[in-house]
Amino acid sequence: MRPIETRYARSGDVRIAYQVVGQGAFDLVFVPGFISNLDLHWEDEGYSRLLKRLSAFSRLILFDKRGTGLSDRVDANHLPSLETRMDDVRAVMDAAGSGRAALLGASEGAPMAMLFAATYPERTRALALYGGYAHFHRWVMPPERLEAFIATTETAWGTGATLPHFAPGRVEDSHFAAWWSRFERLSASPTAAAALARMNAGIDVRGILSAISAPTLLIHRRNDARVDPDASRFLARKIPNARLVEIPGRDHPVWTGDVDRVADLIEEFLTGEPAVADSERVLAALLVTRIYDTARLGDRMWSERSQRFQETWRLLVGRHGGRVAGTHGELMISRFDGPARAIRCAAALREAAQEIGVASAQGVHVGEIEMRGPPVGLTARVTIQLAAHASRGDILASRLVSDLATGSGLHFVDGGRIALDELDEPLAFVLATSEQHLEPACRSKPRPAEPAALTARESEVVSLIADGKSNAAIAAELNLSEHTVKRHVANILLKLDLPSRAAAAAFSARNPGPHGP
């Protein structure tokens, strides 16, 4: 892709950086959230995907708000009002030769877009507001939480420390976490980030909502980690004829999660036509494999075994008719034309891992992916989460995989359902078992561990699992992080040699007392 030209518009005494992409029939101005950097956006797969989708049906006008990215900084001692910042939109439109445009306001960009629509109705074609709000302290964070956030920006800015506030679901994604750290550093300095947070704290546009006459679409994720979904519900009640669509997910940035779902909604709203199916997407089976060290090997021995497994992984994927699709942190991703091939490859990888002396856990799912480049989007994220839920030696697959593999000779056991952030309903999943002629029915089963094998904390966790509580609920009750709870659950299943959370709940019911309910 050729480099996008960056130009500058003058807004008073400030220079605002902007880019223009696409040649659609109408203009669409993207008003970004808290921080942005025009050049860095194109380096993230989710962000670039969103911008390419939007620019496919519009002339897309992008800019960095004053104080961020490639635009001029603001005086921390004389913070500009929202009205002043809103006028930057007008300056960018003038510089780009846009007389009238649709506005996409994301997060903190939504109040700016709303104020612009109320102030310049003749220049506003339509409003698409994602994760927006009308009053900062009511729907984003109260004053005390804001001060804690600002303290974080002043002491740990540039390290990715703010990622859990915006996209907790991506914290374990080492590649995205590294990009986010750069995103912080190249979008604002620590002083500028603190100034931006204080500017945003003053946002209150509740009084102008009834003056918005442009057609308005509201999009909000149901479990948004940063902006309370009630914020968009309030906007839907107060903006005349506004329509609200709530979608699954908790990660806040518009370029995370199911980007195509967001782009589809915006495209249909602005063009009046459903989004055209992407001809470069194909149906494929994804296999995500992870290995981990259960023998507590030394660094050198673990590195040698890990490297040996990766070499074996590449070989076995090719033998089973698949293609290596790349790695995602410690995860190995491969794609296949059919689910049966993916399952058989997973079984071979499980056996290879045992021979090498490492533990494996794998997830398989079927869905649409891009023909070119590494798998991204909903299908990839669901498969990754299946692999994350898998215990040692497990091959977890969505029910769709077993349905499509009917008649293949493969065998599956019902595993229940998993609640995933970006799906409307819990995902039905199965555990793939070895083919019968390879799995003797008389195989002796290892004796389950005694309850005393659990630590006091693990006993608390297993009791709460038996109560039907999710990892998030357990974390809240025990004052732990979800990541820590996930590790406790994995250790419980490992110690008790159990295949799932449901089995752990049943174990707790059978073993009342200090380790049971």
Strand order of the largest sheet: 1-2-4-3-5-6-7-8
Uncertain stretches of 5 or more adjacent residues: 436-452, 513-517
Shape: globular
Question: Mean of the pLDDT scores?
Answer: 87
Rounded Rg: 25 Å
In which range does the helix fraction lie?
40-55%
Estimated structural class:
alpha/beta
Number of separate strands: 15
Terminal CA distance reads: 59 Å
DSSP helical segment count: 19
Strand content: 15-25%
The major sheet is characterized as: 8 strands, mixed
Task: Characterize the structure shown.
The chain has 517 residues and is of the alpha/beta class. It has 19 helices and 15 strands. The chain has helices at residues 38-41, 45-55, 82-95, 109-119, 136-139, 143-156, 163-166, 174-187, 190-201, 230-238, 259-271, 299-319, 339-356, 378-389, 399-404, 456-466, 471-478, 482-496, 501-510, and strands at residues 7-11, 14-21, 27-31, 59-63, 101-106, 124-130, 216-221, 243-247, 281-292, 323-328, 331-336, 359-370, 395-398, 411-418, 427-433. Mean pLDDT is 87; it is low at 436-452 and 513-517.
